[in-house]
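Practice set, problem 2.
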Amino acid sequence: MFDKARHHRRSIRLKSYDYAHMGAYFVTMVTQGRVCLFGGVRDGQMQWSEYGGTVHHQWHELPKHYAHLALDAFVVMPNHVHGIIVLTGGDPAVATAAVGAGLKPAPTVPRIGRHGLSEIVRAFKTFSARRINAHRNAPGVPVWQRNYYEHIIRDEESLNRIRQYITENPLQWSNDAENPERIEATA
């Protein structure tokens, strides 16, 4: 029986914020059950499996489907991905201007159209899951957790800090909360 109190999913999105506004967004998506499907980290370098390569390819295909989108830093990890999506308004030259100095909180900039961040993330997950499941002959099996983490990037300092975090993420895998083999320090 459906129990509204028990089955209700609380939104983690910023209330009254329009995620279709021009701006930069940091996103993290995690595999279903945190399964290390995309490869492994060896000597601080991510080594993709076939599925990790598929995810990488599908991420870089997104601008072909959404003219108002530019991609920034991105990393495929064993069981999650981190990336920066920039909604530009359709002009690729705007991507450079929209990221970094002068980047304003999205509520103060014009709305760019009907495809917001959630639609783009949904499409990425769908495209990549279909191809992965076709390779492993497992149609309809969930690849991704239902939700995703997002953070609105509001200034150049934040952008640079997030870029560094993404770039260095494989070096931090042994301490990553998503690493199922991480050894917890005991006090």
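Problem 2, part (b): a different protein.
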Amino acid sequence: MKLLVAEKSKTKKTQSPQEKKKRIIYWSVLGVGAVLIIAAMAIFVFRADEETSARSEYESVRDAFFYIANPAYHDTSGGMPNESEPIADSEDAPGGDLGDIIDEAQQRRLAMANLLEINSDFIGWISIEGLIEYPVVRGSDNSKYLNTTFKGQRNSAGTIFMDYRHSLGFDESICILYGHLTRDGTMFSELHRFRDSEFLQENPYIKVTTLDGELLTYRVFAAKITDVWNSAYTLSITNTTRAIADFPNTPRDASRFLLLSTCTPGLNDDERLLVFAALA
């Protein structure tokens, strides 16, 4: 027994420096790998929680908007709107009997006023049927709403926002709206569908509701992968005529434009997708 212990002890003592180094490297790599996996899992859980939180907030904002702007879809149970079961007449609808409602523009103005109370930067609502339904804000710069939701919560989903340099809002000759490309397909992620010419032809309209209840309809005429240095991001603010000259397939009779901007799924941080639309 003593001889066996002595042999084991001798074996340990004779371990070469190279072997020790390999063992240290092995355990170090294993440790770093474990830390990276744990960190990745933590980030994934955090992002998933953020996405869930953002979706929940925007669903509530969307419900509030349609509840007032579209009383014909008001649920008879007194809940939020149910678009699959339109109500022909309901005394529970905002404003009483639908026959007493003044007009649709009035309802839209009420909806706008309601959302303006939630966020004083609110300037309108953007709709692309079946794809996008979001409030639009304009901050004092183009950074605030990159990671801030409509209700002011810190969240990477951010908010759809207008370039802060558009002092006239949707009355500008050219307006640029920004929105994130998200993992869960929310915000402006669906804009990439317009890269398909067939989809663009079948789904060309973007609708914007302004604060005064006006409903603006824009027609998409192009979608282009570009970068942050595209003249549309700068010249549209200072030189409308020159900017329009750089737009692809610009309709000849168009005088007001809406540009929607989002990121691309590639690794190039400077790359962007621009969707071009003209007021119909």
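Answer key, part (b): Residues 74-101 have pLDDT under 50 and may be disordered. The first helix runs from residue 2 to 13.
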